[in-house]
Design goal:
Layout lengths: L2 H23 L4 H8 L22 H9 L10 E3 L2 E3 L12 H19 L1 H14 L7 H21 L2
């Protein structure tokens, strides 16, 4: 495809998106228009519904436009991404949770991440908890497996620190 053909195709797509926005402005139904004009196979049959998404799930330009919309509104100009032009209609939005409601989950996530990144810290914490709570393993096989696991953790952490 020549540069001129590409430019013409892009111009055509932009004009089509602008025409759809005009139809929306005239009161036509977004769902119906998306089913008729969308080229996105994943959302076309659902009337353009992408479902809920979080930051980082979509392309930056798309997210920025979507997050700036108020519930019940659509983009008044086409949003350009590497996939083409989009018209975004925000049907609903999730209420952001209060920090007090997600604080524990955030802490647990950060601790889990840190422990998975640092086996030495994990090894030390396991040893600390075992001593603090007086955990003794009386089953020989289980004790052997635990000791093997701890040895591997210790070796792994020593190798990472070299």
């Amino acid at each position: 495809m020549t540069t001129e053909e590409k430019n013409n195709k892009e111009k055509e797509a932009l004009n089509k998106a602008k025409d759809i926005i005009k139809k929306l402005n005239n009161g036509e139904d977004f769902d119906k228009l998306a089913k008729e004009y969308s080229t996105d196979k994943a959302t076309k049959d659902k009337g353009g519904d992408t479902g809920w998404f979080n930051t980082g799930d979509m392309l930056e330009e798309f997210e920025k436009a979507a997050y700036n919309l108020k519930k019940g509104t659509y983009t008044t100009t086409p949003v350009k991404t590497k996939y083409g032009y989009h018209i975004i209609y925000k049907t609903d939005e999730k209420k952001k949770p209060e920090l007090k409601d997600v604080k524990t989950t955030i802490k647990e996530t950060l601790v889990t991440k840190k422990l998975s990144e640092d086996s030495a810290l994990f090894y030390k914490k396991l040893e600390e908890l075992r001593k603090e709570y007086g955990v003794e393993i009386h089953d020989d096989k289980l004790n052997g497996d635990f000791n093997t696991y701890m040895s591997k953790l210790k070796t792994s952490s020593n190798n990472k620190n070299k």
